[in-house]
Amino acid sequence: MTTQVQEPAIHVQGLEKSYKKLEVLRGVDFDVERGSIFALLGSNGAGKTTVVKILSTLLKADAGIASVNGFDVAAQAADVRASISLTGQFAAVDEILTGRENLVLVAQLRHLKDPDAIADDLIERFALIDAAARKVSTYSGGMCRRLDIAMSLIGNSQVIFLDEPTTGLDPEARIEVWQVVKELAKHGTTVLLTTQYLDEAEQLADRIGILHEGRIIVNGTLAELKDLLPPAKVEYVEKQPTPEEVFFAIVGDDDKDEARRRQ
């Protein structure tokens, strides 16, 4: 008896993309298992958003193959779009409407049955009950982002792309978003998360891919990434490397010096 191997929710092989003479992606390879959280980690300009745009059919690759939920992103773009949701770096919410009205509107635009019930379910799921009747203009950054993610899930998307979802949020709001992302995975949603925050990848991801100079140079669990560094010992006490130490040990000292200059 043969066991059928389930195909990954996202498959990327040899992905390349250039803007004129600038090579952004130079052969990106990775898979994301169904129901897991994969963090694409890299500095600004590493090509994270370009990968997301290609996978969500907003941009065409120059070379390579990619599939989402079993559909080829180039040949079956409509099927890909029907099975995904995308949340960008800035919340796409209407601040004039209430939180509930935003959700109902999206459900109506997608021609779904019983938009009110859909909105009520998401309001409860994303802990927005107390704020549902308030205009979004009164929401905190974390609440806006929670609402934004809730809106992107209308239609039961099987795969969701979160492109730097906590950019510009304060620490409390970031934790709120982290909780939402963890809940998505618990419900079986596959999440591809791009981030430049090492602690975010550590908190959320089942696997982490480090994108550097157009390629995935490391892909593994946090424990596997830490194992790439030899343990440091002080008085026979093992010192565990931080995610930041792992990152700069892999990509090199040039990025570390650049990060220091930005501080």
Largest sheet: 6 strands, mixed
User: Can you list the strand order of the major beta sheet?
Assistant: 6-7-8-3-9-10
Distance between the termini: 59 Å
What's the tally of helices?
10
Oligomer: single chain
* Structural domains: how many: 1
CA radius of gyration is 20 Å
CATH superfamily: P-loop containing nucleotide triphosphate hydrolases
CATH architecture identity: 3-Layer(aba) Sandwich
What is the CATH topology? Rossmann fold
Percent of residues in beta strands: 25-35%
The chain-level structural class is alpha/beta
Shape: globular
Overall helicity? 25-40%
Number of strands: 12
Which stretches are poorly predicted, pLDDT < 50 over at least 5 residues?
A: none
The H-and-E topology, N to C, reads as EEEHEEHEHHHEHEHEEHEEHH
Question: Mean of the pLDDT scores?
Answer: 85
CATH class: Alpha Beta
Description:
With 263 residues, the chain is of the alpha/beta class. It has one domain (10-219): 3-Layer(aba) Sandwich (Rossmann fold), CATH 3.40.50. The chain contains ten helices and twelve strands. It has helices at 48-55, 77-82, 99-109, 115-125, 141-152, 171-186, 198-204, 222-226, 243-251, 253-262; strands at 10-19, 22-32, 37-41, 63-68, 71-72, 84-87, 159-163, 190-195, 207-212, 215-220, 232-234, 237-239. The strands form three sheets. A six-stranded mixed beta sheet has the order 6-7-8-3-9-10, with helices on both faces. A four-stranded antiparallel beta sheet has the order 2-1-4-5. Strand 4 and strand 5 (71-72) form a beta hairpin. The mean pLDDT is 85.
